[in-house]
């Protein structure tokens, strides 16, 4: 298949972002006109304002998940790497359960801090475990450490939930992944971390291009491999921790978006990273909008919709041979 040029890919992304954002504000259990957002006297103004906050959060979280998926896959050279594989979701989940069950936390803003801390600690632990031994944190060891930590933490979360049924009710909605019910104050808490992580992550394009050649060749090109991996890791912590803290563990975005982008424009991370950020935002907002339309007046949370969309897309990429070693 002939790959698209960078200009074509960016043009498609801009159109998709505009369509997804506008549709997210206008569509739902109730249609609202485009003037409702600007007219405070409109009876649907409050609905439009809530949907705008939801759309902005979806764009931020989706962009972070798309970008962090590309960063993780480049860092570990594992085509299946995403926040779920490397322990981020599990770490955030454990922190949330401890906050609710042990500390009695009930404020949404406090949830964000606890989940972010859990996700960040999980990533640091994975890297520390993988660093044990003569070879340091190799891609294979990082993936194995992430899988082991995820299995252990998931069992702890299940055990805590079994003995505290009240915690299940508070934890359930966050666990499936959602951008509903979050005000702009929640986004503002995570925004500084998302911005710093995005800038740092996008600056790692040349680093990941070098690391893709292997550590030995990267050193031959003058790269400081340990330092480069640390910088990418910091960006990963900021992005993954913030995204999971704000919206819960939304599956498949960080996994399929980078592969779709590579199929579109090739393996150059100077294109893969920014386009993964953009198309990740499109996917989350589009999935959230569709989730509001399929079962009116109720809705399907974005974490479920992203899985419904992500599974067939992922299988299609596998069947077409688009997923291979990085």
Keywords:
326 residues, mainly alpha, ABC transporter involved in vitamin B12 uptake, BtuC, 73% helix, 0% strand
Could you explain how this protein is built, in words?
With 326 residues, the chain is mostly helical. It has a single domain, classed as ABC transporter involved in vitamin B12 uptake, BtuC, CATH 1.10.3470. Helix content is 73%, strand content 0%. The protein contains 13 helices and no strands. Helix 1 (6-26) packs parallel to helix 12. The chain is globular and about 65 Å long. The mean pLDDT is 84.
Compact description:
The chain is 73% helix and 0% strand. The protein is mostly helical and 326 residues long. It has a single domain, classed as ABC transporter involved in vitamin B12 uptake, BtuC (Orthogonal Bundle), CATH 1.10.3470.
Structural class by helix and strand composition: mainly alpha
Show unreliable segments: none
Overall spatial form: globular
Taking all Cα atoms into account, the compactness measure Rg is 20 Å
Q: Give the fraction of residues assigned to helices.
A: over 70%
Instruction: Write down the secondary-structure element order.
Output: HHHHHHHHHHHHH
Tell me the β content: under 5%
CATH superfamily: ABC transporter involved in vitamin B12 uptake, BtuC
CATH architecture: Orthogonal Bundle
Q: Supply the number of helical segments.
A: 13
- Number of self-contained structural domains: 1
- Amino-to-carboxy terminus distance: 19 Å
């Amino acid at each position: 298949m002939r790959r698209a040029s960078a200009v074509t890919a960016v043009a498609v992304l801009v159109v998709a972002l505009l369509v997804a954002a506008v549709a997210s504000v206008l569509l739902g259990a109730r249609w609202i006109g485009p003037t409702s957002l600007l007219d405070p006297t409109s009876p649907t103004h409050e609905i439009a304002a809530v949907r705008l906050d939801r759309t902005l959060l979806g764009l931020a979280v989706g962009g972070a998940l798309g970008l962090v998926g590309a960063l993780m896959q480049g860092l570990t050279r594992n085509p299946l790497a995403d926040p779920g594989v490397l322990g981020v979701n599990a770490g955030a989940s454990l922190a949330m359960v401890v906050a609710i069950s042990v500390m009695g936390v009930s404020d949404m803003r406090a949830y964000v801090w606890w989940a972010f801390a859990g996700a960040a600690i999980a990533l640091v632990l994975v890297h520390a475990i993988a660093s044990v031994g003569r070879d340091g944190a190799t891609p294979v060891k990082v993936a194995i450490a992430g899988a082991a930590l995820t299995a252990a933490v998931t069992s702890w979360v299940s055990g805590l939930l079994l003995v505290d049924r009240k915690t299940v009710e508070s934890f359930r909605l966050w666990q499936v992944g959602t951008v509903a019910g979050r005000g702009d104050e929640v986004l503002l808490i995570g925004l500084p971390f998302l911005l710093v992580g995005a800038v740092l992550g996008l600056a790692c394009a040349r680093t990941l291009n070098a690391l893709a050649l292997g550590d030995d060749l990267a050193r031959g090109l003058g790269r400081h491999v340990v330092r480069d991996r640390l910088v990418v890791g910091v960006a990963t912590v900021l992005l993954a921790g913030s995204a999971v803290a704000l919206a819960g563990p939304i599956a498949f975005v960080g996994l399929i978006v980078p592969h779709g982008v590579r199929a579109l424009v090739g393996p150059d991370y100077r294109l893969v990273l920014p386009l993964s950020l953009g198309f990740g935002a499109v996917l989350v907002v589009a999935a959230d909008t569709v989730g509001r339309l399929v079962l009116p007046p109720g809705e399907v949370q974005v974490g479920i919709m992203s899985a419904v969309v992500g599974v067939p897309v992922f299988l299609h990429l596998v069947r077409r041979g688009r997923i291979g070693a990085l």
